[in-house]
Amino acid sequence: MSIGLSIFSCSGEKPEIYKDPAAPIAARVDDLLSRMTIEEKVGQMNQFVGIEHIKSNSQSMTADELKNNTANAFYPGFTEKDIARWTEEGLVGSFLHVLTLQEANYLQGLAMKSRLQIPIIFGIDAIHGNAMAPDNTVYPTSINLACSFDTVMAYKIARQTAREMRAMNMQWTFNPNVEVARDPRWGRVGETFGEDPYLVTLMGVESVKGYQGEFNSQEDVLACIKHFVAGSQPINGTNGSPSDISVRTLREVFFPPFKAGVKAGAGSLMTAHNELNGIPCHENKWLMTDVLRDEWGFKGFIVSDWMDIEHIHDLHATAENLKEAFYQSIMAGMDMHMHGVYWNELVTELVKEGRIPVSRIDQSVRRILDVKFRLGLFEHPYADEAQSMTIRLCDEHRQTSLEAARNGIVLLKNDDVLPLDASKYKRVMVTGINANDENILGDWSARQKEENVTTILEGLKQVSPETTFDFVDQGWDPRYMDPKQIELAASKAKQADLNIVVAGEYMMRFRWTDRTDGEDTDRSDIDLVGLQNELIKKVAASGKPTILVLVSGRPLGVSWAAENLPAIVEAWAPGMYAGQAIAEILYGEVNPSAKLAVTIPYSVGQTQMIYNHKPSQYFHPYVDNKPSTPLYPFGHGLSYTTYEYTDFKLAKEAITPTESINATVKVTNTGKRDGVEIVQLYIRDRFSSATRPVKELKDFARVALKAGETKEITFTITPEKLSFYDRDMKWTVEPGEFIVMVGPSSADEALQSKSFIVK
Ligand code: BGC
C-alpha cells in the first residue's frame, strides 16, 4: 500500500492510515479505532439535535415536553454551547434536525477542530424529498407513491433526494419506512407504502438502492429502514402502543420488507417505539441480534428512535434507571443513540466498570465509521454553498415530482362526471379545508416558499383558465370550521354549475398540536373530522354535481360521499405540484392510473380490514351494515378508459416444488384514451398445513396502453412466491392446488382465476 506524506502524524510516529483515501476502508477503520479513547468511541455512538433547533426550542419547552414531543426538543440543563464544546472535543458522532447547509457546515467545522477530525454524519427525515428543510423538491408522500405501483419512480425519487441532501451536507435519511400498515387509525399510514408486504418490499428495496447508489460517492446517502418492528399494527391504533403479534405473523407480514432491505444493502436500521410481545424493541436482543445480525447478516448500524432508549426506563419500566436502559439496549445490539446528553457519561461508566466490554463498543463504532468512510466524509466533510441551489429544486427534480403526483392520485369513484368538461361547467365553486392550502405537502414537510407550492385552487385556475372558480374559504383547520362559511358555500353551490369540495386531514408539522393525521396523530375514528361531512352534504344539496377530493395520509371511511356523490378522488399528499396534478386529472389532461395500496374500510369498527386476511376472518360477518367488504378494496382505482383482460393462461397444469410457472394475460385498452393499467396477480394456496391469506399479491405490472392497443403480460411465479412458513415454521412450498388470480383490483369480482397443482 502506498502511503502519502500527509498521512504521517506530526511526530512522524505512526502513519495515519485512516486519512489515506487510497487505503482499504477496513484498514482505515482499524487504524482510527486504535487511536480513539473510550470517550471518543462512545461519543461516535451518540447523536444530538442541531444547535439552531435547540436554540429555537429551549425557551419554550418543558422537560416533559421533551419526552413526549417528537417534533421539537432541547436538553434541559444544557445549552447549545455545551453541544458545540462536545463537538470540538470529538464527542459527537451525528446530528439530526439540522435544517440548513450553513449550520451543517458550521457544525462540521467544529468537528474538524477535534483531535482526530472524525466528520459528523448528518441525519434528517427526508421522507418524500428533503422536505423538512427549506428549498428542496417535495415529492408525493410514500402512500401516494405506493399507489402508483411504480418502483422505478421510487428509485428515481430516492436518487434525486440523495443528491439534494448531499447538496446540503446531509448524508443520512431516516427512510424508507418499510412498515406494513394495518390500522387506519394510526397516523403514520401516509409515510408507509401501504398494507401489502410484497409491494412494501419492492418499494422499500428500490428506495434503499436509490438513496445509497453505489454507496461510495458524494451523491449517495445512507438509507435507514425503519421502524423495526410491527409498530404499524399498534394494539389500539396509537403510535408506540404495544404490538402483540405472533412470530408467524411477524415472519409472514412484518419481517419481509426489512429482510429484503438488509439484502439490498441498507446501511442503517431504526428500531421501533413499541414493545413487541412484552419486550421493548429498543432492548430486544432477539430482534436486533438474533434475527437481524445472525439470521439476516445485517452489516450496517442500528440507531434508536427519538428518546426510546430513555423510554425503556421511563415508559416501559423494564429498566430501573437510565444507565440500566443504556446497558440493556447496547447489549441487545443497539449501535447509536438518538438523542441525548447522558449517554456519553453513563455508557463510559458502564465500560469502565467492565459491564459493557470494549469489544462490544468497538463493534458499533466500526459500523458507524465504516459508513462515514464509504460516503467520503473524511475527504469531503463540507458541501459547497455555491453549488447547492444548482441541484436542489432543479427542473429535472421538479418534473419528477409532478410526474409522481400524476401517477399516485387514485380515482375512487366516477359516475360519468369526470373528466370535467369546461364548456359545460363554466362556473365552479371550490371549497374545503384543503382547497387552497400547503397541506398537500403532507407530513414530514416544513413550510416551503409559496412559489414552490401549487395549491389545488391554483392548479385548477392554471389548468382550466376559461372556468370561473368561485372559492369559499373554510380555513385550514378541520376541527374548527365556521358554520357561517358552510352556509355561504351551500348558497354559492346553487349558483355554480359544479362544486368541488377538497376535504381530508390536516398534516403540517409546524402546527404540531393542531394536526389530525401524521406522526403521533392517531384517531379513534376514520370519518372526516369536524364539520366536513356537513359541508359536503350541504353543498351536494344544491342539486349541482359535487365532487370530493381527499387530501390525507390515512384511508378515510367517507361512506356518505361514496353513496351520494358522483365522483371521489383520493389524492393523498401529492407534494409541491399537487394542485397541478389534481387539476390535470379532474380536467382529463392526465388519465388517472393509480390503485389503492391500502384498503379503505367503511368504518373504524371494521379494523383490521385488509385484503390479505385469513380464510376465517368473515365466517361470521358483522351484523350491521356492509359487514365484510371494504368501502374501496386494495388495488382499486379507476381510469377514464376501460381495459379488458382476455386469454388468461397458465403455462402448465402441474409443476414440482422447485419449478416456476408462467401466467400470461392479454390486456386491451378498449376505451378512447391512452392509459396505464396496473395489472395485479394474486395467488391462493388452496389447502395448507398452516392457514394462509385468501389472496396474496405476488406480482404486478404497470402497462402503458394506447387506445385500442393490446399487450400480453407474462408473470413468472417462482417457488419463492409460492413458499410460506408451514406448520413447523419451515419456509417451504407445500404440494397441492394453487389458485392464480389476475385483474385490476383485489376484489373477487374483478379477478379471473385458474389453478395448477404442485406435485
Ligand atoms: C420518528 C422517526 C424519526 C425520528 C427523527 C421519531 O419521532 O419516529 O421516524 O426518524 O423521530 O425525527
Question: Brief overview, please?
Answer:
With about 750 residues, this protein is α/β, with parallel strands linked by helices. It has 23 helices and 26 strands.
Description:
Helix 1 (25-35) packs across helix 15, helix 17 (395-408) packs across helix 22 (578-586) and helix 19 (483-495) runs parallel beside helix 20. Mean pLDDT is 95; it is low at 1-6. The protein has 759 residues and is an alpha/beta fold. Strands 11-16-15-14-12-13 form a six-stranded mixed sheet, sandwiched between helices. Helix 18 links the parallel strand 12 and strand 13 (468-472). It has 23 helices and 26 strands. The longest helix has 17 residues, at 247-263. The chain binds beta-D-glucopyranose.
Molecules bound to protein: beta-D-glucopyranose
Distance between the first and last residues' Cα: 57 Å
Structural class: alpha/beta
The largest sheet is: 6 strands, mixed
Strand content range: 15-25%
CATH architecture of the largest domain: Alpha-Beta Barrel
CATH topology of the largest domain: TIM Barrel
Write down how many β-strands occur, each being a DSSP E stretch of 2 or more residues: 26
Q: Helicity, in percent?
A: 25-40%
What are the SSEs and their pairings?
Blueprint: H1 25-35, H2 38-44, E1 46-49, H3 51-58, H4 63-68, H5 80-88, E2 94-96, H6 101-111, E3 121-124, H7 142-147, H8 151-166, E4 172-173, H9 197-212, E5 224-228, H10 247-263, E6 268-271, E7 275-276, E8 279-280, H11 285-295, E9 301-303, H12 310-314, H13 322-332, E10 337-338, H14 343-352, H15 358-374, H16 385-391, H17 395-408, E11 410-414, E12 427-431, H18 456-463, E13 468-472, H19 483-495, E14 498-504, H20 532-540, E15 546-551, H21 559-564, E16 567-570, H22 578-586, E17 643-650, E18 654-655, E19 661-669, E20 675-685, E21 696-705, E22 710-717, H23 719-722, E23 724-725, E24 731-732, E25 736-743, E26 752-758
Parallel strand pairs: 1-2, 1-10, 2-3, 3-4, 5-6, 6-9, 12-13, 12-14, 14-15, 15-16, 18-26
Antiparallel strand pairs: 7-8, 11-16, 17-19, 19-22, 20-21, 20-25, 23-24, 25-26
Helix pairs in contact: 1-15, 2-14, 2-15, 3-5, 8-9, 8-17, 9-10, 13-14, 17-22, 18-22, 19-20
This protein binds beta-D-glucopyranose.
Beta-D-glucopyranose (BGC) binds next to loops.
